[in-house]
# Entry
Amino acid sequence: MTLLQLLVIAIVQGITEFIPVSSSAHLVLVPVVMGWPDQGLVIDVAVHLGTLAAVILYFRHDVWTIIQGGLRLIAGRWTPEARLTLQIAIASVPAFLAGFMLHEMAPTLFRAGGENPRLAMAVIAQTTLFFGLLLWAADRFRPTTRDVTEIGYGGALIVGLMQAIALIPGTSRAGITITAARLLGVSRTEAARFSLLLAIPVILGAGTLAGKDVYDAGDAQLGLDALIAAAFSFVAALITITLMMRLLRFASFLPFVIYRVLLGLFLTYYVFTLPL
# Structure
């Protein structure tokens, strides 16, 4: 891969991983639209590690709270920290199960080099549109007063079940979890915070599966390309998280919805112009 390809893939991943626009869709689309070869699993693992480091750094105090909560759960102490940890665990289970069962199919169905690129693009176009409009509806018509702790374990499970749908490119893991939390009445900043914290175990799980695939393929050595990709995705993700959390203090998710609608319409047109 050229340096330009590495930088574009890393920056796109860093920007789109935690905002509600679907990073997986963009990682599929960039090689297709630019006419580049698929970046492969090694670079995918690298850019996800970069974004994982960024979210852990930004939410380092929350991560420490979750770790403390886990220790208190083990000790049988039902503190607020323990309840948050249990909510994160409950919400992560559906995505873990779905990812484990379907990860063998995903490369064939949805990567740029898959068997049916037109189908992959069509799926991304429609999920980008539909789930973007669903986010708008949830953000527009639901109250914004509840804290994450108020939705309880049942609410955490609902968010987790919705998160599992994000295995379909174009859905957006961040987008669908924020939408679910907003539908439950969680405030914008709290919904985004919960979504970003949920990203940590999900990225760890997905990275473990992808890393195993890389190892099984005999291509486990991460070279200079992967290090560059990880570094740039880290910087892009950290900047994006900081800006989004500041934006949500006084704005809605409407800018992301507008972007998704425009992108979905463009992709729908693009699908129809692809050669048969």
